[in-house]
Amino acid sequence: MNIDFSKIPSPCYVIDESLLRKNLEKIKAVKEEAGIEIILAFKGFAMWKVFPIIREYIQNATASSLSEARLAYEEMKTKAHTYAPVYLEDEFEKISEYSNHITFNSLSQLKKFESRINPAISVGLRVNPEYSEVGTDLYNPCSPGSRLGLLAEQLPDKLPEIVQGLHFHALCESGSETLEKTLESFEKKFEKFIPQVKWVNMGGGHLITRKNYNVELLVDLLKKFQKKYNIKVILEPGAAFAWETGYLVSSVQDIVENKGIKTALLDVSFTAHMPDCLEMPYKPRIIGSLEPTPGKPTYRMGGNSCLAGDFMGDWSFENELKEGDKIIFEDMIHYTMVKTSMFNGVKHPSMGIWTAENEFKLLREFGYEDYKGRMD
Hints:
Elements: E1 12-16, H1 17-34, E2 37-38, E3 40-41, H2 51-54, E4 61-63, H3 66-75, E5 80-83, H4 92-97, E6 99-104, H5 107-113, E7 122-126, E8 163-167, H6 176-190, E9 199-201, H7 215-229, E10 232-235, H8 239-242, E11 246-258, E12 261-266, H9 270-273, H10 275-279, E13 298-302, E14 311-316, E15 326-330, E16 350-354, E17 360-364, H11 368-373
């Protein structure tokens, strides 16, 4: 870590260019070694002002809405691989304009829009492999009764002529060992359909850039699958691109105590600025903190919204915290920035980059007009 946090305003998301490039190099190496296509999923990372850096390594993107497809076209300079649970009548024409692949969630949606699909667009169907190791139901697309993807028994023996691909997404920050077991289920259930298509999109959740991720197994699985079926393979990770590439810089505004519990009140909000912490849930790392330790100053971290549950804890520190101290949350770029809200009108963190030249560059500040404009 080479960031000088004294130069970062609070609150602010800051991405480290050197760490981002390190991830991109690994992703590009997998793409080339396995001979597959890897595309950036905007639902995990959509910080478009760094897209010029990403395009040096990966040129394509996946979208799940008209806005994401348009962002791909305008800022990634590519048409999108687009999938959405449902497409809206008044958006489909524009989605088609910005897409080179469109995947449907159901046969009824395919039938509804089939006559309006540009012949240049490659059409896919999302399927449910009925296997997932995702432990949190909120993020499990294969839970019983899932609305996402077709079951094998819901497909006709002969796929519609227009369908060129199958798409499954059953992973969440997973290893290649999980993909191996998911592929076993996918092949068992959809084996008769795979020879009917030209590509298989294995979705996201492949945490390629995590320490100790078994890249060799991933490459081996992908090579064998392509050889077995003579088919194109696509991966669309989101978190892997920005995994452990940056921080949310905040600062202590006050310290309150109730029944012996001390809470450091910050200039950021868990519910508005770090929602996955409460939804997953998970406890984020704070630079310089310890696990709760008897005899050490120990605090909850409290957000600045009015939601009663806008807090997490506990962390210990070597010294007592005081007003103005920086609290720096680690790994706060992927699936964080894209999910923020302006709930309660609390100040939204700025966005910046710590460049490869060891300089801070402010990319965006937010103010009243951003909050007001959402209700305009």
